[in-house]
Amino acid sequence: MADIIQLLPDSVANQIAAGEVIQRPASVVKELVENSIDAKATSITINIKDSGRTLVQIIDNGTGMSETDARLSFERHSTSKIKKAEDLFAITTMGFRGEALASIAAVASVELKTKLADSDIGTQIIIEGSRVLSQEPVICATGTNFAVKNLFFNIPARRKFLKSNATEFGHIISEFERIALANSSVEFKLYHNDSEIFILSRSNIRQRIISVFGKRINQNLVPIEAETSIIKVKGFIGKPENARKRSGEQFFFINNRFMRNPYLHKAITDAYKNILPPEVVPSYFLYLEAAPDTIDVNIHPTKTEIKFEDQQAVWQILHATVKQSLGKNNIVPSIDFDLEHNFEIPVLTRNTEIVNPKIDVNPMFNPFDEKQTSAGNNRKSPAISLEKENLANWEKLYDGFENEKNLPDDFSFPSQPETQQTLTDNSFSDRYFQFKGKYILTPVKSGLMVIDQKRAHERILFEKFMLSLESNSVISQRNLFPKTIELDKKAHALLMEIKDDIKTLGFDIKDIGENSIIVNGLPADSINQEPEQIIDIFLNEFQNGEIDAKSRVKEKIAQSLAKASAISSNQSLTTEEMQEIVDLLFACSMPNFSPFGKKIISIIKTEEIEKRFS
Ligand code: ADP
Ligand code: MG
Question: What distance lies between CA 216 and its chain's CA centroid?
Fold first, then answer.
């Protein structure tokens, strides 16, 4: 057989690389703005057209590039930021892979104008699908101006894969927020279809947070600071009373780079453990500084996941710092954290010798290992709350005693016709018990049935909302005293896009501009929550998670609204309310699982109970 292996042409190799680096318009924004920051720009303007499908333009006042560098910058693995492998362990720039420009030029048309400060004349390059169409001298300002047009013009499948304008623009805003918060000393301007979205002047961190998230956040910010030999921490955490049931205001930065770190996120939420209900997430804006050789930014092509040499020590430091700050600001009684932690944050002064802080770390500790208990450790694993342990044990009680998908064959439910007549009989209604404000317990033929009340209610509401959306029949509404709510830009854009669908469900909302809405009515079923909370949880749920097909949008709306409107898991219920939930649940087409696929019902078999007394 003849030889069949050949090297791919650069344009194809670049397109493949682009698949990893450039997923959507927001990735172009991220890569180009990061390049501007690396080029020491102090002012960056971003122009977006059609959520980035038509145009992403980034103009900076950074160093600019020479004629040769301008041409070279589009080659794959061309970078000015590292020269040898060892440099990988001392990264201080945002980029270093030398892939972004080559990738972008492979999947779009790019027009670059750039000029060094000491040149009179700059360079213009037009490149499309990796082909250089022209390169010539041009009169332009010092700095760099990239215009990326018609993203994915040569990969129709990719272009089709892009989500709605609101979703794509939401991603752009998310990337923008991260970079703007990480670089408060840089001025940023963001325009979408020629209208001004953000104008952020150079400022300190606190002012930057306020100009990104609005004035209301100011009184919520509690400053925090710690300096240890392995890490420096500064920034702000949110007051517990302002914590909301939505994610979106949680930011970690390491050496001025945004990072995702679920492990360290837990260190923060754990510090709030006893002062916040479990479903509420505190805001935080934490700026960490560590020596570049103690972190690894190299583990992910888009570089948002970052590993520390000593993750556990960083966990402990963050956890203690947040606890201390909450205590110091009288947000929780200080006795609470004194009792649990006699942990000292080592303070680094100029004359002290640098030693690693002495931290009592359990080397076996893994916060993601749910099965681990505190047995055998003389101190409690910080990441596992007692409540969770109890719950896990409780759930174990009836593990394996039920059929995963269906109810047991011999299952019989109390509200079957013959028992239905006894509903007025008190002895019957007494058959419902609430356990821990979270579960409804009721005897059934085969044993003791346990129902998760929140999930059950979510299922009931989900099916009701789906029915209404699919049949276009308007659901009953509760009228409100008109309430003005200020949203962030992303939430507002999203809400406007699904306005018609949610109207069917009882949302009566009026757009009054400036990202604000007036709420006149909400679904009648959502009586358990404040209007602000409903909209908050609903949008948060709706935003997170991708929606692939139009048909699934309705499902997602129903799901999110069910979550926002359902009773909570620490609400006490009357016997009648429990009865109603149980009845409605078993009238559903899928009573066993919540709209999010979580188990609703579990049965402890009679034999299991009897065995315990044998
Ligand atoms: P990386 O950022 O990983 O080095 P890129 O492909 O993003 O790779 O950029 C390649 C090179 O182009 C950079 O190393 C830098 O030298 C140059 N460059 C890119 N954008 C700019 C800019 N806005 N100003 C000055 N130089 C730039
Ligand atoms: Mg780069």
Answer: 21
Residue 325 in tokens: 């700050």
Among 73, 130, 142, residue to substitute to test ligand 1 (most atoms within 8 Å of Cβ): 73
**Superfamily of the domain at 409-614:** MutL, C-terminal domain, dimerisation subdomain (3.30.1540.20)
Please state, in angstroms and as integers, the Cα–Cα distance from residue 435 to each residue in 402, 432, 445, 602, following that order: 20, 10, 20, 14
Q: How far apart are CA 612 and CA 200, in angstroms?
A: 66
pLDDT in tens, 314-347: 999 999 999 988 887 766 543 333 333 334 444 4
Distance 132 CA to ligand 1 centre (A): 17
Predicted pLDDT at 111? 98
CATH topology of domain 213-328: Ribosomal Protein S5; domain 2 (3.30.230)
The DSSP symbol for 157 reads H
What is the rounded CA–CA span in Å between residue 48 and residue 60? 15
Looking at every residue in the chain, the average pLDDT score rounds to 80
Q: Checking phi first, is residue 482 left (phi over 0); if not, alpha (psi -120 to 50) or beta?
A: beta
| Residue-level pLDDT at 298 | 64
Pairing of strands 43-49, 187-192: parallel
Does pLDDT of 399 surpass 50?
A: no
Whether CATH 3.30.390.50 fits 10-202: no
Residue of the CA atom closest to atom 2 of ligand 1: 95
Tokens found for residue 338: 């004194």
Short-list 430, 466, 433, CA closest to 448: 433
Which residue spans of the chain are classified as CATH 3.30.565.10?
A: 10-202
Residue 143 near ligand 1, beta carbon < 6 Å: no
Q: Is 31 in the pocket of ligand 1 (CB under 6 A)?
A: yes
79 close to ligand 1 (CB < 6 Angstrom): yes
Nearest-CA residue for atom 21 of ligand 1: 35
Which stretch of 33-47, 75-89, 443-457, 574-588 has the lowest confidence by average pLDDT? Answer: 75-89
Confidence of residue 552 (pLDDT cuts 50, 70, 90): low
Which range, 83-92, 97-106, 363-372, has the best average confidence (pLDDT)?
Answer: 97-106
Which residue has a Cα nearest atom 8 of ligand 1?
98
Atom of ligand 1 at shortest range from CA of 60 = 23
User: Where is mean pLDDT largest: 175-179, 490-494, 563-567?
Assistant: 175-179
Q: Where in the chain is the domain with CATH 3.30.1540.20?
A: 409-614
Please give the average per-residue pLDDT across 427-446, as a whole number.
81
